[in-house]
Design goal:
Length: about 675
């Protein structure tokens, strides 16, 4: 857009220079055009120039110089700008100007140093054993090129990883000439590439979908495996660098522990609690092993996770909260072994630990995904997690960020266990009292109450006995299905209680009983919901390695949350209607009923909504206390404070007294007749 003036009038032109009959353009960007009525106009660009176009400044990404001194010129919104890589680099760099006129991070994954590209072409020529000297030369040249080099582009890291993979494949086929010097050079090269100065470049590869460090990690695993295969006899070799520690060896002992704390006492790994233990149950001969500890690549893996057979994005639900470790065994026949890893947490205030390993061959992925297959959570504390695996690969612990600190797990679990036990006791007492006084308290509401008490007892018993039975997946899924059904039944019966109350308060003249239809529906409808959910998901989402319940990460959880929230909403409306009706009609019966029915309405689950915010731990305690003591509240309000129950008890006592008196008179009469 241009602002133009002829001294008296001002104009705005929305055209490019090419479409204007311009006669003069000075160094300040002001030019003269033929205006209306053949008058001259002095015009200037309001925004900025892009070629021959004047663009509104609000839609422009301003000129910017990045960390590699590349000058990105003014660019219009929603435009991908590309430049040829400068200096000794080949390829091109790109950068996107977003819709709000802001530059995104530049992409240098296609910029590759000429010297590194030359080394890559040399690895393609490796063939027979005679080329082994070339391998050493390539590794040494690449190690020199990457040492303390803050000019490496992300394309250099990607190409260097490809070189290491080519070399790893070559030495796998020509192991006989491997030496410890080769291993030293290889580890030094990996250490250079994983230096902190390259962290942003690795992260750029994650953003661009190029797999991050996965290619490098795979090369390391394959290379050190080949090295272990050529060693004879018992030995232990440690190569410790600033960013990576590798320990390889062969041992005959039944238990192998890495890292060796004596040989790594001066390394960064000595400050970490992370430790790997191989327990050999059925193995013969020497066991070759290799282990790698990476200091700072936890955030440089693609954020994908295999759950219920599907690959899903983390979406903030999980984060890697430990260093990455790699452990592999070689050269022995082990039919039964376990790998136990103690992971030192990187950050606090995380929960729901997930024992993970990186599956390079995950379906529907290019570079792999995190998986929990073949793992078991052994122990979890504030600062560490212990996992057990029945296989070897790259391992890490995944946790949910910003969740309840694990220091609250034990007290919350104790409160829930004690509360559930107390509830079961008082629910059983409530059922017993109503059975004894049934002829005096029998009505539609007490029928619904008895069904609710039975459902709650079953829920609490199965919850206490089965919520942690995660060792058997089939059993765990079955428990999760039963709990899903029982909890939905609980809420359905709570809704039935609400319907009975509003019918009693609002409807003056009742036309028959509805309980004979209402109660069966409360048991059948939840079964339909659970049946559809289980069938549609094929039980995926029912139980995981932490608990036997609907997994929070799956959409299946809404098959419980949806109906539960609906019941709570309806019962809240019923409470409001009952209060308003009672106030308008000056009836205290309705208000009194509210105090009695609150424990039955599931309203305490509103606290559960607040308990999802883990900064408000107090609500988690309130939620655990109120819901686990629901049975106690029911007994107090529906037995101790219930007038109908008290009257029924009085009738019961009088009846018992009358029965005893009749029995006594009968006995005395018999004695008199006999005399």
């Amino acid at each position: 857009m241009f602002n133009c003036s002829n001294g008296n009038k001002h104009y705005q032109l929305l055209q490019s220079i090419d479409n204007i009959n311009s006669r003069f353009l000075n160094t300040e960007g002001i030019f003269v055009v033929d205006g209306p009525n053949n008058g001259d106009l002095d015009c200037s660009c309001v925004g900025g120039w892009i070629g021959a176009k004047c663009i509104d400044s609000s839609n422009l990404c301003e000129e910017n110089v990045d960390n590699f001194n590349t000058i990105w010129s003014i660019t219009s919104q929603n435009t991908l700008s590309t430049f040829a890589c400068t200096g000794e680099y080949m390829g091109h760099a790109s950068r996107y100007c977003s819709s709000d006129g802001k530059w995104e991070e530049p992409n240098y994954s296609n910029c590759i140093s000429n010297s590194i590209q030359h080394l890559k072409s040399k690895t393609k020529l490796l063939a027979g054993a005679s080329d082994y000297s070339n391998v050493t030369i390539i590794l040494e040249d690449l190690e020199n090129k990457t040492r303390d080099n803050n000019e490496l582009r992300s394309g250099d890291l990607l190409t260097s990883s490809a070189i290491l993979n080519d070399i790893a494949k070559y030495v796998t086929e020509h192991k006989d000439k491997l030496t410890s010097d080769h291993l030293e050079i290889f580890v030094s090269l990996c250490n250079n590439l994983l230096d902190d100065i390259n962290y942003q470049r690795w992260n750029e590869l994650i953003v661009q979908g190029s797999g991050g460090v996965t290619s490098l990690v795979r090369a390391v695993s394959e290379y050190i495996k080949a090295f272990t295969d050529v060693m004879d006899g018992e030995f232990s070799l440690v190569v410790a660098k600033q960013n990576v520690v590798i320990q390889i060896g062969m041992a005959s002992s039944d238990e192998i522990i890495v890292p060796d704390r004596l040989k790594t006492s001066d390394s960064w790994i000595s400050e970490s609690q992370t430790e790997i233990t191989l327990k050999k149950n059925t193995c013969s001969g020497l066991t070759g092993y290799s282990s790698t500890f990476y200091r700072s690549i936890s955030r440089l893996f693609p954020k994908y996770l295999i759950q219920d057979g599907n690959v899903k994005s983390f979406n903030g639900s999980y984060d890697v909260n430990s260093i990455i470790t790699d452990f592999t065994i070689h050269g022995t026949s082990c039919s039964d072994y376990s790998v136990i890893i103690k992971f030192d947490h990187l950050l606090d205030n995380f929960s729901m630990p997930f024992c993970g390993h990186w599956n390079f061959s995950a379906l529907n992925t290019v570079y792999g995904a995190w998986s929990s297959f073949g793992s078991r959570l052994v122990d979890a504390a504030e600062s560490y997690t212990i996992c057990e695996y029945n296989h070897t690969t790259n391992f890490a612990i995944l946790t949910s960020p910003g969740k309840t600190p694990s220091s609250h797990y034990f007290p919350l679990s104790v409160i829930s266990a004690i509360g559930c036990g107390v509830s079961i006791l008082f629910l059983a007492l409530t059922i017993l009292i109503h059975i004894v006084l049934w002829r005096y308290v029998r009505n539609d509401r007490t029928k619904t109450l008895m069904n609710l008490c039975v459902a709650l007892v079953l829920s609490y018993v199965i919850f206490l006995a089965g919520i942690a039975r995660t060792e058997n997946k089939v059993v765990c899924s079955a428990i999760a299905v039963v709990l899903h059904y029982l909890f939905l039944t609980d809420f359905a019966l709570m809704l039935a209680q609400g319907i009975m109350v509003v019918r009693m308060v609002v409807v003056i003249f009742h036309k028959g009983s509805i309980v004979n239809k209402l109660i069966p529906a409360c048991w059948i409808v939840p079964a339909v919901i659970v049946g559809i959910s289980a069938g549609a998901t094929r039980l995926k989402g029912y139980g995981n390695q932490q608990f036997c319940w609907l997994t929070l990460e799956s959409n299946l959880i809404w098959a419980f949350i949806g109906p539960a929230l609906l019941v709570i909403l309806i019962n809240l409306i019923i409470i409001i209607i009952t209060i308003l009706t009672s106030i308008l009609n000056f009836h205290l019966t309705g208000l009194k009923s509210i105090c009695v029915i609150l424990p039955l309405f599931g309203v305490t689950w509103v606290l559960g909504a607040f308990s999802l915010n883990d900064d408000l731990v107090i609500f988690q305690y309130l939620f655990a206390i109120c819901n686990s003591l629901q049975g106690l509240f029911i007994c107090v309000f529906h037995c101790c404070l219930n007038e109908q129950v008290r009257l029924g008890y009085s009738h019961y006592q009088r009846r018992r007294h009358a029965s005893r008196m009749a029995s006594k008179l009968s006995t005395e009469s018999t004695k008199y007749v006999s005399i």
